[in-house]
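Cross-check.
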Amino acid sequence: MKRLLLLMILLFVCFAAACAGAEAWASGLPEEFVPVLKHYATGLATDEEPAETDEPIETCRQYCLPLGIDPLDSIGYCFADLNGDAVPELVIGSMPGSALPVGFIFEIQALRDHDPVRLIRGWERYRVHMIYDESADRYGYYAEGASSAFESVYEYAVAAEDMSGWTDRHVIEAVSSPDDDSVRWALDGAEISGDEAYDRIERWQYRCMELPMSPIREWTPESVQARAELERRFGFVDGQTPGTAETFRRSFQLWDDGPVLDVVIKDTGRRRPEEERENVLQVTVTARDGSLAQSFEYASAELPATIAMGGMAFLDDMNRDGKPDLVLTTARGAYNEFFVFCLWNAPENRFDPVMTTRRWDWEANALTDETIPLELCDYAFSVSKQGFPQLVSRERDGYAETRTMVYEWLPLGRALTLKEAVEETNE
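Predicted model, tokenized:
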């Protein structure tokens, strides 16, 4: 039982980190899915019992209503190219920052001959999450279910190349004895040890990811009419096409009783071709209770339309003061992932600007007078001998070279000093 509990904790932790993967689909809204979204909006807005064919809508309501939350705001959707064929699939799941289980998928639909077809659905006893499989370079799903009080099932599969269904599917079954605490494990029907089963499940859970979602409320008649009126009057829709990856949005709650913050990252369209991070992005942070509204810009090599789903922003306690800070992705490659961050400023009730530092000249082996954003690569936390928290940045040039920089927080935890910069060449 302790091992099963640890697996659940690991699954939650995996969603907190930014997840690498293939590019999300970033074109216009596919018209074939419009009736599906409108149907969801109608079904989630009514108190009437849905038809027997509307199991996903009923499941959404069963999750939301006992919690006292509105399904229209707590259930979201997005479009993603799961198999890399440039044709989008529709994903219905829990909104980031809602009270629903993190990263829960209620339904995935694909287009076949221009008609939406259901590929999989999640429900109370079959919990589905999105994964990205690096070896297949495609998305897929991880699911946990129970067929009885004594039998649990764990599934893993990736999207078929032609999106006809799922491939590379594996199933782990755990059957508990009603007489004692023993558990019999099997992988695809063949018996395996408990350690092997836990190890494989942990690796599957590690690939789970939380998708950026737009609320289903956007497809209520009132919202549709409002967007149509904006387009009629001004010739454009305020913001980006709903549900696409053109605008990154994610919701966070800084602490249990704190306000829900909505973080939106948009491409300003401005470019700095002479800079390594050429794209100028705008970050807007607003609190739903009206206590916070701020906007700032930062430079990134990535765009919301091209970066992997879920990876533009997340929270982490960068200065180890017990308060979450905002971390923003600036570049993602085969070996490295780069970030900048903004500390949470409690007295001002907002995030500080992007943390800066003096540029390090690797050839001169010295700090320069140039102030630049403090960009970390695949960062990790450490502690100095004196007990001060540290941030370790480690950049790898394939297998040939590694650059490690160690920053140490000063006593108040609002400023950093560079303690070490080491360049190593691997033989």
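The helical segments are 2-16, 34-45, 55-64, 71-74, 194-206, 221-234. Residues 2-16 form the longest helix (15 residues). Passed to J.P. for a second look.
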